[in-house]
Fold this sequence. Notes:
Layout (H helix, E strand, L loop, with lengths): L3 H11 L30 E7 L4 E2 L4 E8 L2 E9 L5 E2 L12 E7 L1 H7 L9 E7 L6 E8 L2 E4 L4
Parallel strand pairs: 1-8
Antiparallel strand pairs: 1-2, 1-5, 3-4, 3-6, 6-7, 8-9
Amino acid sequence: MQSAEADFVFLEARFQPPGRSRAGPAIPSADLTSTSPARPTMSAITTHVLDTSRGRPAQNVGIVLERVDANGAAILARGATDDDGRLRTLLPAGEPPQPGTYRLTFATGAYFAALGVQAFYPEVAILFEVRAADEHYHVPLLLNPFGYSTYRGS
């Protein structure tokens, strides 16, 4: 049986940024920009939906990405979250987003209805600003039947 101190050292090493582990060699970071068949280059705009009421990724959540301007909104992409609650293919790989306002709309009512759960929000719309085309914009959604939260991820 390991001691609590050994468990702490393991966890501390596991969650240190690459190159900063005090308990051994650096933990390699994933290369999400690789063009290998196993890990294609991802979209410049991505999302991840976590169902906090179930403590799991929210699978099969329908999502629409739009570009919004003074003339209205133009749909750029539609998709659904995968088994890990992620949607990595909103824009073609390697295509930078143009600066401006974007909206991600999540079909949360349909997601909860498929689980047999009544929910308060039929959909969640998140508007965000793209300022630099060379950056990655990750917009996670933490979701439950009666609330949600979002932030700019990495």
